[in-house]
Amino acid sequence: MSIYQPRSEAEAAGLIGEAAARGERLRLVGGGTRAGIGRPAQDEATLSAAGLTGITLYEPAELVIAARAGTPLAEVEARLAEGGQMLPFEPMDHRALMGSTGAPTIGAVAAGNVSGPRRIAGGAARDSLIGVRFVNGRGETVKSGGRVMKNVTGLDLVKLMAGSWGTLGFLTEVTFKVLPVPERTATLVLAGLDEARAVEAMSLALGSPFEITGAAHLPEGIDGPARTLLRIEGFTASVDYRLGELTRLLRRFGKPEIQEGETAGKLWLSVRDVLPFAGSDEAVWRLSTAPGRGPAVTAAIAAARPARWFYDWGGGLVWLATPATGDAGAQAVRAAVAGGGHATLVRAPDSVRAAVPVFEPLSEPLMRITAGLKAAHDPAGLFNPGRMYAGI
User: Which InterPro entries match (predicted)?
Assistant: First the structure.
């Protein structure tokens, strides 16, 4: 299989134009750390962004950074750290969960709309993405958005590209807005709550004025006893005040422990990167639902097959592991989230991912729109064919 690694946007456009003329289907990759997400590849060559590297703009005063798509995420985060800043959405690193190697790239973060626990406060990756450059399936270079928020006008291809998993275009540059790193971070830990009580506590905290930036629940058996985590960030005086007020607000749920530094950091890293399920041979699902429905959804799945899980985003995100046998729980999972959520099969053997829908099945009207968008941007179906939906 051919591997193309352009060193410039112009070279990428030329390669894609030639592939279009040949009808050669392309697998688009960055660092390859998330290659196992989606349906199995149906391509004939690989087009890698690894040669498109470098930070092209960093304006700390404007809270904006731009980088070529193949730039390692670690390089972007290190540059931001030098300026006392960060990406607001705390992007997940999939390597431990997927058993992959390589370096996550900033373009792949945008393409997958990859977000972490801070999403509940800072929004998803797409909310911070303000500009993109990409090459479409005709070999044409497209620019959308800008380098400041007020320049995002017209058809918002920026948000369209976020979460498209490389099916609509080959990203060459992305621009994100950033935020200052908090002066202090503290985590309030409530022990021993069952899932319904934990969701109640997280909802109460998130509905308060105390600016929670992380809310997760690890049930008993997920790396130890049951723990409910509530993160607060900001200036030290503000954190002290909010910890006190939050402790009083949640007093009926028990006396919390306050953790800071490396201990708390490891907890949130485990939640962000789904480390409780790393290294196993189970299928892993990512379920999105209303926080109040989370315990009912997991109970319905557990009634149908063995499963273990934990909650992020105040209960609105459920990470669930189940044996990778049969349909890897697809029927039970889809039935449980029907009418109030959606689910993505993040990790499973190729045979399972080829046989069951990996991303949430679309209604007929939405499938027509999706097919139309694919045809408009990639008329020959070159990019990651079938990765999200069969035939698209």
Answer: FAD-bd_PCMH, FAD-bd_PCMH-like_sf, FAD-bd_PCMH_sub2, FAD-linked_Oxase-like_C, Oxid_FAD_bind_N
Q: Which residues contact 33 (CB under 8 A, 6 or more apart)?
A: 93, 94, 95, 98, 100, 101, 102, 103, 104, 108
Q: Is the pLDDT of residue 115 over 60?
A: yes
Which residue in this structure is represented by tokens 């993405």? 129
- For tokens 């006392």, name the residue: 84
DSSP symbol at 40: P
> Whole-angstrom Cα distance, residue 248 to residue 255?
9
| Rg value, the chain, Cα | 21
Q: Where are the domains of the chain?
A: 2-180, 184-272, 275-355
Pick the CATH number of 184-272 from 3.40.50.720, 3.40.30.10, 2.40.50.140, 3.30.70.2190: 3.30.70.2190
| pTM exceeding 0.85 | yes
Q: Which pLDDT band, with edges at 50, 70 and 90, does 146 fall under?
A: confident
Question: At 159, which helix (H) or strand (E)?
Answer: helix 157-161
Q: What counts of helices (H) and strands (E) characterise the chain? A: 14, 18
Do 184-272 and 275-355 share a fold? Answer: yes
For residue 42, the model assigns a pLDDT of 86
Which tens digits make up the pLDDT trace of 266-298? 999 999 999 999 999 999 999 999 999 999 999
